[in-house]
Amino acid sequence: MTKLMEWLFGISVVLAAWVLVAFDPLDLSVPHTYREVAWPMPLYLLVSFGCYSLATVGYRVATFNDCQEAARELQGQIKAAKEDLRSKGLKMCN
Amino acid sequence: MSARKTSRSKPNNGDKYSVLLPTYNERENLPLIVWLLVKYFDESGYKYEIIVIDDGSPDGTLKVAEQLQKIYGEDKILLRPRASKLGLGTAYIHGMKHASGNFIFIMDADLSHHPKFIKEFIAKQKEGDYDLVSGTRYRGNGGVYGWDLRRKLISRGANFLTQVLLRPGASDLTGSFRLYKKKVLECLVERCVSKGYVFQMEMIVRARQLNYTVGEVPITFVDRVYGESKLGGNEIVSFVKGLLMLFVTT
């Protein structure tokens, strides 16, 4: 099953459950409180997911490691490399 | 008592690592990355070779590669040039044809990937006999130098979207610092059809599909090129297209 199919399947299941509980199309006498709670669920879940996404990406951007040390180390090694290579006979332009 | 030279280096268990370096206009960086690779591999004691796949660079990268070959030896530096810029997938295929290693490293030649992580990749691979080990900028001590807020935001946002849609089981899909078992790379590269960022993503997604095991190693990515080539709208659009393609077909 492709990811698209998995999503469509998952969404169908959730949608079916929602319709069943919120609108009671089969007249199963779903208690009124269940219907009230279920009805705004899709919107609620969407908004929650949106907030979760923003918070997660925001957190990850804020904690994205800034590798100053790595950059410094690289600069040092570049110098050493150039000297060593020059001494071994490499003709470099800078 | 005869003097014996004790080798403090490694298990000579027959493993050899071929490093594939596709290059385009890397006249200045190539000697540096080769120097670093030689340094860290020699320290590790593992057998290795560096395969430079130059796509007809107009700046004379191949000439520099030839000089490096004279310095380090033709058994360590192999040249597999091509006439023009033909893309990464075919570069890997071309490079692998003459690779004598049973493991393949792929990495960028512009010094954004640092060879010091090589021993960590190797250790990780041996730890779980992973089919592929991916360098990640998003976990552990991994990170990036040289990116502004906008770039970080795009990177994390794109990665989040990818995780949600593809649930790939790897934290960094667009990274290109990886260690593969040679057979695995050969198998995957044939199956992957995308270009650019998406190619690297597709490699991991297909690896998971084929039930290959994927390990991760945090790496630091030092971007010295970012100032010159900002991530533009075009690249973002083609990334999203590629992501959707993978979403629909895998």
TrEMBL record, chain A:
The keyword Protein biosynthesis does not apply. Signal peptide: none annotated. Keywords: Endoplasmic reticulum, Membrane, Transmembrane, Transmembrane helix. The keyword Lipoprotein does not apply. One of its GO terms (cellular component) is endoplasmic reticulum membrane. Pathway: Protein modification; protein glycosylation. It comes from the Eukaryota. This is Dolichol-phosphate mannosyltransferase subunit 3. It comes from Hippocampus comes.
